[in-house]
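Sharing a chain and its predicted structure for anyone who wants a worked example. Both blocks are below, sequence first, tokens second.
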Amino acid sequence: MIRVVVALVLALTAGVARAETAIVAGGCFWCVEADFEAVPGVSDVVSGYTGGASPNPTYEGHEGHYEAVRITFDPSRVSYADLIAKFLRSVDVTDAGGQFCDRGSAYRTAIFADGAEQTAVAKAAVAQAEQVLGRKVVTPVLPARAFWLAEAYHQDYHRGSAIVLTRAGPKKQSNAYKFYRQACGRDARVKALWGDEAAFAR
């Protein structure tokens, strides 16, 4: 009987890949979250803070931390290597001072690799990106550290329906996000840097 149950469990779980995660920082976490939610094989993307020493960072106090996202994905549908390649092609990997209109250490790019395998894959992706661009990539590959979820109002910001105040006046949150992304020059810069290889640029 036990053998039958074990065989049944093995049959039911055969071919079912265990979910994996990737953590990256690419400037404003709203934009990175929105980009990767659209990738087939990705089941969840959440915004948060990582890389710093202080526990329980908040939006008002996350000095030393990066704005980052944690991507949960099915490796049988999309590989870690593919995600990292897309990530590198969705940011300005030549800018060490922030991203686009967001300046400062919280908005720097980074890949937070979990273990030797992710580290090797990420470093290979960075080297390949340097070959494509013919320029130095300043995006570091760092060891994964504690990932702290950002406040609820930051999650799925690009889909929100609340009214928020922008430089162009009150806007529905999803429209405010589109206005911010365009005004910040994110897609224009990514397309200028990466050309046809640009990922997600609208």
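Comments welcome. Residues 16-154 form a domain with the Peptide Methionine Sulfoxide Reductase; Chain A fold (CATH 3.30.1060.10).
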